[in-house]
UniProtKB/TrEMBL annotation:
Gene3D superfamilies: 1.20.1530.20. This is Sodium Bile acid symporter family protein. The keyword Transmembrane applies. InterPro entries: Na+/solute_symporter_sf (IPR038770). Keywords: Membrane, Transmembrane, Transmembrane helix. The chain crosses the membrane at residues 9-27, 33-51, 63-85, 91-111, 118-140, 152-173, 185-208, 220-241, 262-283.
Length: 305
């Protein structure tokens, strides 16, 4: 059964989003526990990676240029588009909050399932997460819909918990546990890593179901916006990195398309306005169908001369 779930994990993530929509009570019940799943997933992913190489990747200037593209460029584009289209402050704040959001911590597991460079995806995830507080400050400070200030203390603590903590634990395990024993343990644990990802689409989509129950029309508008956002993140980044090769472009694209809206909401909460959480829930559908599309696209591009 486990082997079957791992083999079809990309489709399974999308199915979990549909199940969370169909069972909103269960989805909302799981939502408060997602940070614990997040930490576990981050730790298991990091333990299976060579930490020295990860640190070296983080020292590359090109990685930080990607992080700026991931947030700053898209925030600028959406700000101009929102102003031209007359988008409401609440919705624009939610869109900019999504654009500021770092990559999903589950992205390396998804990238690994696609057969791409999970280490590069992890470095991108950490870099975009480190830029998150600065990126979030801009819409929260300048848009009148938001009241209050960004809680940098809370964000600092979450960085310690979700990034520094797993890195230190991973370093310790690599130093204290013999390499062969650690590798054997990882071979047994690694199949479960992708299964943890199933909790995110299931637990986050409940807020979108609440909006759907209140207004079907508004919910469909949010779903359309979510699809457009994920498509723009993916396609824009793919085209930007296309000259570096298919695998590099797809890795950057799917890392940009996957957004850790849970962490962003945990940091800023109500400061992001009433539209953010329903939009974050709507994004679960296109976000978790994206790996399936990416696999098919990679297969097609590999045959294209």
């Amino acid at each position: 059964m486990l082997a079957f779930l791992v083999k079809h994990s990309l489709i399974g993530m999308f199915v979990c989003a549909l199940l969370g929509f169909a069972f909103p009570v269960a989805s909302n019940t799981l939502f408060p526990f997602l940070p614990y799943v997040l930490f576990t997933l981050m730790l298991l992913t990091l333990v299976g990676m060579p930490m020295e190489q990860l640190v070296k990747r983080l020292c590359h200037g090109a990685l930080w240029l990607y992080a700026l593209w991931h947030s700053a460029v898209y925030m600028l584009v959406f700000s101009v588009a929102g102003w031209l289209l007359g988008v409401s402050d609440a919705l624009l704040l939610a869109i900019l909050g999504v654009a500021a959001t770092g990559s999903l911590f589950a992205t390396p597991a998804i990238v690994r399932a696609l057969g791409f460079d999970a280490l590069e995806a992890m470095a991108m995830t950490i870099a975009t997460t480190l830029l998150l507080p600065l990126a979030l400050y801009i819409p929260i400070h300048f848009l009148p819909m938001s009241q209050g200030s960004l809680d940098f203390v809370t964000y600092g603590l979450r960085l310690l918990i979700f990034i520094v903590g797993p890195i230190l634990i991973s370093f310790s395990l690599h130093k204290l546990v013999p390499k062969e024993r650690l590798q054997r343990a990882l071979l047994k644990i690694s199949p479960y890593t992708i299964l943890l990802v199933f909790a995110f689409p299931f637990g986050l989509i409940g807020s979108y179901r609440n909006l759907f129950d209140q207004s079907v029309t508004q919910a469909l508008v949010y779903l359309l916006i979510a699809v457009l956002l994920v498509a723009l993140f993916f396609c824009g980044t793919f085209l930007c990195y296309r000259k570096q090769g298919v695998q590099e472009a797809l890795t950057a694209a799917i890392t940009s398309g996957n957004r850790n809206v849970l962490l962003t909401y945990s940091i800023a909460g109500a400061l992001l306005g009433p539209a953010f959480l329903p939009l974050a829930g709507a994004m679960q559908v296109p976000t978790y169908i994206l790996p399936v599309v990416t696999r098919r696209l990679a297969h097609y591009l590999s045959k294209t001369p």
